[in-house]
Amino acid sequence: MSTAGELLEVSLGPQHPSTHGVFRMNAVLDGETIVKLKPVMGYLHRNHEQIGEGITYIGSFPFTDRLDYFSAMSNNFGLAIAIEKLGGITASERGEYLRIIMAELTRLVNHTAVTGFLLNDMGAFGTPLLYAFREREKILDLFEAASGSRMMCNYVRPGGVRQDVPEDWLKQAKEIVDHYPHFLDEFEKLLTENEIIRQRAQNVGVLSKELAVNASITGPMLRASGVDYDIRKVDGYSLYPRFSFRVPLGSVGDVYDRYYIRILEMRQSVKILQQALKDIPEGPAISPKGAAMGKAPRTFRPAKNEAYGRIEAPKGELGFYLVSDGSPQPYRYHVRAPSFVNLTVLEDLCIGHKVADAIIILGSIDIVLGEVDR
Amino acid sequence: MSLPSLETLFVKPAILLRDLFPESARPWVSIGIAIGAIAAVAPLIMMYLTWIERKLIARMQNRFGPTRVGVYGLLQPMADGLKMLIKEDIAPQGADRLLHAMAPILAVAPAILLFAVLPFGRYLIAADLNVGLLYFFAISSISAYAIFMGGWASRSKFSILGAMRGVAQVISYEVPGVLSAVVVIMIAGTMSTVGIVEAQAQRWFIATPWGFVAGIIFFLSGVAEVNRTPFDMPEAESELVAGFHTEYSGMKFALWYMAEFLEAFAVCAFAVTFFLGGWQGPAVPFWVLTVLGSALIATARKLSLPVRVVATALLLAAGLVWIKEPIPSWMWFLAKTYALVFVLVWLRGTFPRLRVDQLMGLAWKFLLPMALINILAAGLWWFWRDSFIGWFLSAAILALSYWLLILANHPARRFEAALSSRG
């Protein structure tokens, strides 16, 4: 790399088509090659954690929808698990099943959309993105039927879910889920073997196993680097141990692996969904303790304690840390956001690559600014 | 008065108009007519090219595209033009205002000039230069200056990055582009576009081994030169916002757009001229076309009933009037050109973009050697043109070199992401 020429400093963002929101990368370029890259965050800071400390435990649920606004259901799920741990609440069985169904549907939505966005970042003129959004819409319809809202669902509660799904919902869900593999096949036909995508994505932004573990990367990004770590398997939270599914792992840890891991994870999610939709029992959607908490939020006063609940969100480990001082409000409320943590390796991945690569590396990390900045 | 034949539908009126003037003024008048016709047709082509592209891409993406302005959104281009016209014209602070204003003009002018040597049909050409092919390459490479001027004058980092990419790309792709056209000159023995079309009377050049390869190389370099996907590096939206025209707005931006679309059309039109037989086509009776067209219109549910009836009747009447004639040459030319335009749109709807170094690699490591070998193949084909040896030799050389070049360019292909999993 020559350093004879002058270096060019470019500020990509906060208003830029490919930074997925108000995110900024200060890149120093030598020609087209990136010498230095500094991510600048915080443009979307909304005081999420502080707000959570001023309201009841259950009052935070609508706010969690806005964290990673692509996967509201998973966010609800994470907070519900933390509160359940803190208050010793158990969920009803049907509630657990519904939560798992929602969480896996969310994973489908998220991975489909992020793959579409990644292709947009590579310069495809919207076609893969719109194919992805077509499928996403169907699942959003399901969410709307269950929760009344397409994206800001606010559906999962400690002890189960807010209300049972309407009649016929399970049947509709089954149709959509059964169709999903066909869509994935079509999607893969367009993308997986595509020579341009292979040239663009393979061996670009390689994340080594060591760096991934040391930087506490989680989610598909970690598994693309070949580390076998899936909280659904490790923790076995909720009823996940009941379902049979596999954890796909990558070998290189480049952008292509991260893309392909997501496709494979979607196939596994479909498997989980099919099992869950088949086995879901009848019964109340929420346990009595959870229902009581929903009716009178201020009566929920957990003893002085702390709890950390975490789930395998589509983007990685989503954790909620709660400290109770015996009052109806948490003393400390902290969110461990996977987007934020995964973003920390951006500079390591980008250095030495071209500007165009930085964009797709960012796209393959899969960030949502609502979660990065909170 | 008898109706003019379809073939000379446009030529006849022009000649009649010219003949109104005295003998001495006629050369000038005919030049004026040609310029006027091109100046009138070019913006129209560009406007509807945007409509076609938007509609086609929309269909590829499960959308409808423009539907609100006019039937099938047919007036959308006018609305867009009007919008551009009334937008504020912004020049960034610190910009070189003169160059900033000149660049889009410098981009559009050559794009329109290209139309001068395009044979739209038999006798339907503005200027049959004996160096038509050379003229095409000379004029189309001016766009590199325009791109750099625009990028430089904007004083924006994105613009300058886009401009640098643009210049590198246009210059690089000119080389394989020109070399692929060399074989056309070799075989046709002329650089006149009309001569090249006439040389394809027996066989379109695309139907020979060397012509096939040269046609693809020419088209690819053309796509790269007009900065369209998958070679739209200079204006890479996801990376450089809009590349060299990031800082343009209003009518200046519209001019950039116009230049791009006109050049895209011109590239398709020249590819048709050089390789796809230009305006020549099989002698299909004209009435077949009108019957097909009227069936299409009669079943178009969006149009109101009276419109459908009148249009169908008009079309059928036209078929009846010109019942003895075959499909005229200019229709063949336009049909082939728009078929190539469809390929352009199709590419855009399908492919992501290459990276800048890969783009250069494709030009220098693959297209250039291929174009050079193609010259040899064309020579062999010509030497043994009467026997099957020439066909065999040229095809074999091209296939072998294609294979070798692919092998050389991909030393270590990774076929599968090795995936292990735990149950």
Number of strands of chain B: 1
Report how far the terminal alpha carbons of chain A are from each other. 38 Å
Rg for CA atoms of chain A: 21 Å
Taken as a percent bin, the fraction of beta residues of chain A is: 5-15%
Question: What's the helical proportion of residues of chain A?
Answer: 40-55%
Number of strands of chain A: 9
Mean pLDDT of chain A: 87
What does this structure look like?
The complex is a heterodimer of chains A (374) and B (423). Chain A is an alpha+beta fold. Chain A has 16 helices and nine strands. In chain A, strands 1-2-3 form a three-stranded antiparallel sheet. In chain A, strand 7 and strand 8 form a beta hairpin. Chain A starts with 7 loop residues before the first strand and ends with a helix. Chain B is mostly helical and 423 residues long. Chain B folds into two domains: 332 residues, no CATH class; 36 residues. Chain B is built from 16 helices and one strand. In chain B, helix 2 packs across helix 3 and helix 2 crosses helix 11. Chain B starts with 10 loop residues before the first helix and ends with a strand. The C terminus of chain B is likely disordered. The chains are: A alpha+beta (374), B mainly alpha (423). The interface between A and B is large, with 48 and 37 residues.
Task: Please give a handful of descriptors for the protein shown.
heterodimer; A: 374 residues; alpha+beta; three-stranded antiparallel sheet; 16 helices; 9 strands; 49% helix; 14% strand; globular; B: 423 residues; mainly alpha; 2 domains; 66% helix; 1% strand
Briefly, what is this?
Chain A is an alpha+beta fold. Chain A is built from 16 helices and nine strands.
Question: How would the blueprint of this fold be written?
Answer:
The complex is a heterodimer of chains A (374) and B (423).
Chain A: E1 8-12, E2 24-30, E3 33-40, H1 48-54, H2 61-65, H3 72-87, H4 93-122, H5 127-147, E4 156-157, E5 160-161, H6 169-191, H7 195-201, H8 209-214, H9 220-224, H10 231-234, E6 247-249, H11 255-279, H12 288-295, E7 305-313, E8 316-324, E9 330-336, H13 338-343, H14 346-350, H15 355-365, H16 369-373
Antiparallel strand pairs in A: 1-2, 2-3, 4-5, 7-8, 8-9
Helix pairs in contact in A: 3-4, 4-5, 4-11, 4-15, 5-6, 6-11, 11-15
Chain B: H1 11-18, H2 26-60, H3 76-86, H4 97-113, H5 132-140, H6 143-153, H7 157-188, H8 193-199, H9 209-225, H10 237-240, H11 250-275, H12 286-298, H13 305-321, H14 329-350, H15 356-383, H16 388-409, E1 420-422
Helix pairs in contact in B: 2-3, 2-11, 2-14, 3-11, 4-6, 4-11, 6-7, 7-9, 7-15, 9-11, 9-15, 11-14, 12-13, 15-16
